[in-house]
Model the fold of this input.
Amino acid sequence: MTSELDIFVGNTTLIDEDVYRLWLDGYSVSDAVALRVRSGILEQTGATAAVLQSDTMDHYRTFHMLERLLHAPPKLLHQLIFQIPPSRQALLIERYYAFDEAFVREVLGKKLSKGTKKDLDDISTKTGITLKSCRRQFDNFKRVFKVVEEMRGSLVDNIQQHFLLSDRLSRDYAAIVFFANNRFETGKKKLQYLSFGDFAFCAELMIQNWTLGAVDSQVDDMDVDLDKEFLQDLKELKVLVADKDLLDLHKSVVCTALRGKLSVFSEMEANFKNLSRGLVNVAAKLIHNKDVRDLFVDLVEKFVEPCRSDHWPLSDVRLFLNQYSASVHSLDGFRHQALWDRYMGTLRGCLLRLYHD
Amino acid sequence: MPGKLKVKIVAGRHLPVMDRASDLTDAFVEVKFGNTTFKTDVYLKSLNPQWNSEWFKFEVDDEDLQDEPLQITVLDHDTYSANDAIGKVYIDIDPLLYSEAATVISGWFPIYDTIHGIRGEINVIVKVDLFNDLNRFRQSSCGVKFFCTTSIPKCYRAVIIHGFVEELVVNEDPEYQWIDRIRTPRASNEARQRLISLMSGELQRKIGLKVLEMRGNAVVGYLQCFDLEGESGLVVRAIGTACTLDKLSSPAAFLPACNSPCKEMKEIPFNEDPNPNTHSSGPSTPLKNQTYSFSPSKSYSRQSSSSDTDLSLTPKTGMGSGSAGKEGGPFKALLRQQTQSALEQRGGSPHRFCKRREFPFFTLTAFPPGFLVHVGGVVSARSVKLLDRIHNPAFVGIMGNTRSYKLLDWNSFNADEPETRDAWWAEIRQEIKSHAKALGCHAVVGYSESTSICEEVCILSASGTAAVLNPRFLQDGTVEGCLEQRLEENLPVGCGFCHIPYDELNMPFPAHLTYCYNCRKQKVPDVLFTTIDLPTDATVIGKGCLIQARLCRLKKKAQAEANATAISNLLPFMEYEVHTQLMNKLKLKGMNALFGLRIQITVGENMLMGLASATGVYLAALPTPGGIQIAGKTPNDSSYEQHISHMQKKINDTIAKNKELYEINPPETSEEVIGSPIPEPRQRSRLLRSQSESSDEVIELDLSHGKKDAFVLEIDDTDAMEDVHSLLTDVPPPSGFYSCNTEIMPGINNWTSEIQMFTSVRVIRLSSLNLTNQALNKNFNDLCENLLKSLYFKLRSMIPCCLCHVNFTVSLPEDELIQVTVTAVAITFDKNQALQTTKTHIEKSLQRASTDNEELLQFPLELCSDSLPSHPFPPAKEHLESASSNSGIPAAQRAVTVEKASPMGEGNFRNRSAPPCANSTVGVVKMTPLSFIPGAKITKYLGIINMFFIRETTSLREEGGVSGFLHAFIAEVFAMVRAHVAALGGNAVVSYIMKQCVFMENPNKNQAQCLINVSGDAVVFVRESDLEVASTQQAAATCQPLCTGGEVTT
Done:
């Protein structure tokens, strides 16, 4: 006696969250059954392994049929084939688009192309995430990227509207899209200590302040591309380190303000010029795409690492950065106050986030 | 020109990509009704076309309106080659033809293709304007309402229950026509779908005519079935119960007298047409030859015929005026006379009305209080027939039945005439009738008919419950004073129906009678089997449970007559064993009555399968069942003795455990009071059966095991051992689960509103090597048990819950394949049973749920369907009725207006950048095989849903194998049912049934095909909680978010 056909169809589509997770994680039916058995479900319910097998198959089939709709979530809401309560629909979508931290760190900032897709094998081996799950996550990134890439308006809103994701997840996707578009390098060894959250935080600040959308909300691609004009202008900041008088003046203003307030004052005083040069040079170089990509590498190399080697506490970094950006306003010879604020305001936020072990 | 059908094609969405180059589609729509076709413009390069067409108008006969479906075809325009079909939508416009149902059909319909399944959706609006037609020779029966529900529908009152109506229509199956060899599978499937749709329409119309002739206005318990006889054709047959129904306390403004069969001009005036001038202009040009047939004697293009066609030509007196229930005194007298003559004698009178009353059968399974007086027991009849080939009379042969041979003589030269099939059924019905008579009953209730076909052999089966009815209901339920009289007759409410209707001294079979444990006055049998639902006033102890008997018998492969003989010979044994199993399992559960009994015998190439399902209960009026004793045949063997005693202990333990599980604690009765007339207990049978191969005389198989003490199971060989084992292998459902195959579970009456209807299908392949009956039985048993276990597991999140209306269907699609299809509904209930007083509204909705006698008196909410004048609490009744009607009807109308607006507002809605997730999705449509929705009140019946789909694939592997294919198809069928209900303005389907699920596969060719037939009643329901709010605020005419099913917005 072998089972040829075995199906269960409810008027309301049954969704088992546990099985859904196993499916999303890319387990085969037999692996999923084994995992469910291990979870003790047989003892709890008195079911047999055969029942579990049939149940798992059924759910997998349903998910497989739903997958096509999940690729365009608004379709899931309007389709008539599966009657699913709205809360369940939201859960299906949210879980489908959720991703693994380990995976996203591998892909973040990479071009979402076929070439990268070929590397998924390696990523799967490295992270222990099944290849199937890696593919799903990668395809999700790519799909979202393709849809919102050319779209006007707020990146987060666009993602939310076209993929019906939660606010949190939409923001994460905005960061992924932003990083993929600007190809920021995140994979270098010295950046390994940074989490996806760190990068997402920076991406959000940069989208808010450094893109075209930050100044004009009616431009195409406004949230995805950095404001080229702004990047051009940034080289004007070079005067802050190129002009020796200005640099000295800046240092003295900062030192006066912070004297007695920093536990690492002497280190700061000694390093001021180096740090300032580092930060201003990063700005001046952003005109080149290659250097944009290395932004995070540069920030860590030029600022985070020196400070960390001197054991600056975070509070001191904050005090320093605040003072460092604010005191530029009192430099009479400096004319690019607005530009400086746009640059430094974002950078300060990023640096504070990046500054940890 | 009695009607004008108006159709508007609004928009499409989610269309498939038809042009690979552009990834887009150039879609247009053909709208076809009868021979007239209109076309919309081509909407270029879009997957979401906005046609927003003018109103296409079809001027047609109402006869056509009843028969023909509206056919909408979506195509992709192709400049250079033939246009590609995307898919079709068939819309049954019947619900628009009666005045109380839907006024408009409007909504998103899935576009269905028999090869690709659902491919996008189309938004359509359909309206009908009917004109009064006084043509006395008319062939249509517009205005007769149809209900699948097998009880008097909620919100109606039965004035008269007229009785049995039946009809069948025969046609050639397009699949077997010569042209099928050259046309595409798609064309063949569509021809079949369309033909069956036409035949269903025709059948319904003819049944309607019979109802009108009986002066009724509705058919309740309408059951339509298809027999796919293969080469010999396609039979569509239907049975039902004709009634005169009255809408309960309906404001006359909204609901014109429903018992007036004449067609009312619909409330939709022409000026509602938004652009009334466009119908002569625009691109839409009627195609082909428009034919408007005004002739009453219409010629059909299709080849089909039906029985009793002469009836429709009978001039009707007083037709089209007045209501049948109120007028025509002499007519009523005639009815009474004929009813009685029919019920009391055999209908041998030459009078035509009496002929009609030949079969006092009722397809209802639940009745107004007082209707059912006594229940005799199950009556069933089966007959094995050979399907004869068309134009091949030599092939005709029917198994050794003299009567059947006689029939053949009449028909042997045109065997395909429906008269043959008619005669077959008439013969079976006659047998049922005589069985009922043998049980001292004049009527059969819970009546149903079924067939099982394998190659050219067909088993026809009919079964029902012999009963004595209160004759007054059959004429005029409103007769005052009859009730008191009746109540005096059966003073002890709750046990009356158990009392034997037959003469104690002249019993039709050996039975063990005792005085009723409830009233102590009348005699009752020790076990009662019925096919009906548990009567509301029955007193039940504890809870009920699903009891199944499963059986397989191998049979030699044979041809034609030899095959039929073999089957005929096997049938009595099957029936006997099924019955024994049922009886033993019932005893094992410690119960004494079966309700909803359905025995299905399925024939395959090399085996017969029997599956009986019923709900066991403990009726307080019947005696406590005895235990089961095992006796060994070899008493000398001590180890054997030990084994026997071990088994005995196990059985006793099981009985004790079951009694605890189902809370069966009957009050201790002192035996001497009861005074059992027959000392030793014996197993009784209520089952009478006969085969048509038996001679004209009814042979009653004595199922009471002769002289043997029936409580004793003798273990004389391994077979018997197996039987005992199988008895004990039935695992009770896990805790928190109950199951039954009746409408509701006796002993549970605090349902919550969460319901989940489902269909589950399993097919197993038997290993063909050395199949024995035992191995076969075990396989079949495991299949059913595992299926149930899977259901319990899947629905575990609903605990505590009950699987209601569990309906198993077995088929044998191929040699070694067994297919089991289950449809049921899981309903959660509140574990805290003490909440009854605060939850009266739930009980109200579950009128038939209350099984407790006291409760019934407190909440006699059968008021929707009853006609009891002496109501214990008449004021409460009035209150509820008025509340329901006042709030419910405007609500329903509101739903319709919302819907009318929605397709237009579509465009605006799209453009508005609504926040994600906030935009409302597809409205929820509930589906249930029950006649009610827990926690809700049905305010309106919108019409019958009767749909037939074929799905075929030539890429089985790519679609996920057989499971993937069927899973998707069933999901699509559900979707199409829901879409049709929503378009009618409804939010639920009640009495839903999947009547057929024929699955064929050919994995080697990577092909599969499946036919599904479903039906049900589309309704509007209002949550009890909403209802209460509404009734308090009705004056303010507040807008209330009900009928979500009506909202079909994007």
About this structure: Chain A touches chain B through 47 residues (CB under 8 Å). The first strand of chain A starts at residue 2 and ends at 10. The mean pLDDT of chain A is 89.
